Amino acid sequence: MPLLGIGALLSLASLYLQEYVVPEANNRVRVAWWDEIHTQGAGLFRLVGKEIPIGQGKNLYFEGFDMAAKEMLGVRISAFQGEVGTFLFAERGTWEDKTLRLRDYRLYRVDFREVPGLEGAKDLLAQVRKVFRAVSQGKLLEVESDLSRARAIADYADTFSFGQDSLSEAWRKLKDPFLPPADRLRLAGVPLQAGLAPGQPGLGPPLGRPWPSATGGAPGSPWG
Q1: Bridge partners for 120 per DSSP
Q2: Calpha distance 107→97 (Å, rounded)
Q3: Are the C-beta atoms of residues 77 and 221 closer than 8 Å to each other?
Q4: What is the pLDDT of residues 94-145, one digit of tens each?
Q5: Can you spell out the DSSP letters for 31-51?
Q6: What is the 8-class DSSP label of residue 7?
Q7: Are strands 99-111 and 214-215 parallel, antiparallel or unpaired?
Q8: Which pTM does this prediction carry?
Q9: pLDDT, tens digit, 9 for 90 and up, residues 67-102
Q10: Quick check: 67 and 42 in contact, CB under 8 A?
Q11: Cα gap 13→189, rounded to integer Å
Q12: With the CA atoms of 12, 14, 16 and 18 taken in that order, what torsion angle do they form, in degrees rounded to the nearest 10?
């Protein structure tokens, strides 16, 4: 019986470490390496050219990074609500905690339901305006993300993701229906195998709440 009690205590201690201590420690180490030791605050450069989910159905992409200014270049955020796509483009942007600040932005909406009407339309210009709409543009737009900058670096700076997630978070990812299978396996497969059993693949990161709030967007836009 004493051995069973000791075994139970050790199991509980192991679960506690896996749930609360190990994932946070590993995330801090990865962020420290890529964002402090290796690049002195420019860790986002590791995310260039990658699609980063920042909330429910929304993806962030940037094609370059200015190491001196520590700014993203050629920024794009896209999302779909049914067959209506919203696309935000910006020349430059920064990311602090959960706030993206985008400079020289343009916001467009494309209604793919209206595309078939382009063929044979009597008033082609009017139909084109139904399909493609420029919602707003300006100098500065702030977008709130569900994903923090640190967590984005920890998750996407490289393909090694061992021990980043707690068991409960890995289980939540296992039930997430949104992310592609490749991302699910890459991001959560190893933690689940380490915490549960060999051969149990994991799924991708949880997605967040609806369209983020923003300042500087046009009235009625999904960013405001």
Answers
A1: none
A2: 23
A3: no
A4: 999 999 999 999 999 999 999 999 998 999 999 999 999 888 999 999 999 9
A5: HIIIIIITTSS-GGGGGTT--
A6: H
A7: unpaired
A8: 0.64
A9: 999 999 999 999 999 999 999 999 999 999 999 999
A10: yes
A11: 23
A12: -150
The token duo for 152 is 């984005």
Q: For residue 179, which phi and psi values (nearest 5 degrees)?
A: -75, 150
Structure tokens at 216: 């500087």
The single residue listed with the structure tokens 């640190």 is: 150
The three-state (H, E, C) secondary structure of the chain, written as one string: CHHHHHHHHHHHHHHHHHHHHHHHHHHHHHHHHHHHHCCCCCHHHHHCCCCEEEECCEEEEEEEEECCCCEEEEEEEEEEECCEEEEEEEEEEEEECCEEEEEEEEEEEEEHHHHHHHCCCCCHHHHHHHHEEEEEEEEEEEEECCCCHHHHHHHHCCCCCCCCCCHHHHHHHHCCCCCCHHHHHHHHHHHHHHHCCCCCCCCCCCCCCCCCCEECCCCCCCCC
Burial class (CB in 10 A: 0-12, 13-18, 19+), 103: middle
